[in-house]
Amino acid sequence: MTSLFISYSTQDRKFVRRLADDLRAEGYTVWVDFSGLQGGADWVREIDEKVRACDTFVLILSPDSVASEWVRRETVLAQGLRKPVVPIMWRATDLPVHLVTTQFIDFQGAYDQAMPALVDALPPADAAPQEKLEPRTGIRPRLVLSVLVIGAVAIGAGLLARGVANRGEATPTEEATPEVTPEVPARQTEAQTAQPEPTEPGTPPTDSPSPPLPGGMSGRILFESDLGGDYDIYAVDLSDLEIVQLTDSPSNDFTPAISPDGSRVAFHSDRDGDWDIYLMNADGTDLFQFTNNLAADSFAAWSPDGSQIAFQSNRDGDFDIYVADETGSAIVQVTDHPGQDLAATFSPDGSLLAFYSDREDDAFDIYVVNTDCVATLDACDAQATRLTDDAGDDVFPAFSPDGSQIAFHSDRTGNRDVFLMDVDGSNVVQVTNDLAEDREPSWSPDGDLIAFRSNRDGDYDLYVVDANGRNVRKVTDTVGDDSEPAWLP
Q1: DSSP string, 215-246
Q2: Which segments of 7-61 does DSSP mark as H helices, in order?
Q3: Which CATH number is associated with domain 220-487?
Q4: 3-class DSSP state for residue 182?
Q5: Class of domain 3-146
Q6: Per residue in 8-51, pLDDT tens?
């Protein structure tokens, strides 16, 4: 059966859902990512694999897709692999330079008339799989997508969805823990000192060159990076910006989450062949496998008292939120919805779990549930409260230390930036305003600063900004892609 890969912008998701359903009805195998979780290393790897495996690459053309860096990377990868590319003009736009000689299928008019033309342009649905071709000389397709890998933003819907497997108690891993490595290749530069101009009340601040970190600033931020080729967990000391490596595995370690007392770190890794949660001491020692399931368990978050860990998993088919006790046993499913429920985090008082989901429409929005609902699973889904509702994707909620606000990143303005809102969803304020991608906010323990990752200097590094949007400062400047900051308490 002929397999198709559909590359598109999330702004065209509704059209792509219909198209994918109709192509499947024609007998095609269709792979399309509806998770909206672009950028994570696990997501990038799956995209790479799916493009390589497809018989034909279908490109949805619109102003948003032409402007999308990820769509461009997927397309260049497909062309480097000599995949047939079939462009579909959905919303009028100029053709990218690498497609100017390619004829497109016009879907701007009557959909029902364009669909037969698309099927005619595609190989027959029951065609034999195409012979794999070597990429053109001089093109390294895997690097096309991987060079700006931006961390494990998420595991992408459909990754390793291999059913439910009950587990016993978690067991310590037998892998020897590596020595902490203080030497990290980096290109640290002196911070710039210009201050941003004041803005009127209610006006999003405009980011400007970064002043240095305040003198005597202390603390550490954990993050993930691909400095060594694969992704590992690192820590940066804010007093001198020295970087220390905490894990060193030939697999990928993502998304550190720090226990309330700062002594333990949870993260997810594919070191046993699938995605599971692991624990270790804050210095990288005493590695322990927390979950052991054939599905994808990822994005751990500690409860305020350290007795529970929330995580997302697709062990029941799609991604839902689960909570386990600190031993990794007694796992309770918190949500059970056909949508994707992702990246849960506890409120400081432990009464709420915030997560993001596409359960009500095509866009991702932020929801909260009361943690006392876990006794009755149906009650959790029934009383989930939607905090955001806009055309963009609002993702990666993070409670402020006093529990009064939630930081998140969103593309509601057409570009991904960091926002704040009150815990009830009101008083949304834009914190960063830059043409680059600002993502994954993390609060400092005192609530005065927010760390985030951004590619405003080309690749992804860590930055810190005052909670009022002033004084953006660069924290890392490495040869890798640094992401998923987590502030040590």
Answers
A1: TT---EEEEEE-TTSS-EEEEEETTT--EEE-
A2: 13-25, 41-53
A3: 2.120.10.30
A4: coil
A5: alpha beta
A6: 988 888 899 899 989 998 999 998 886 545 445 556 677 888 88
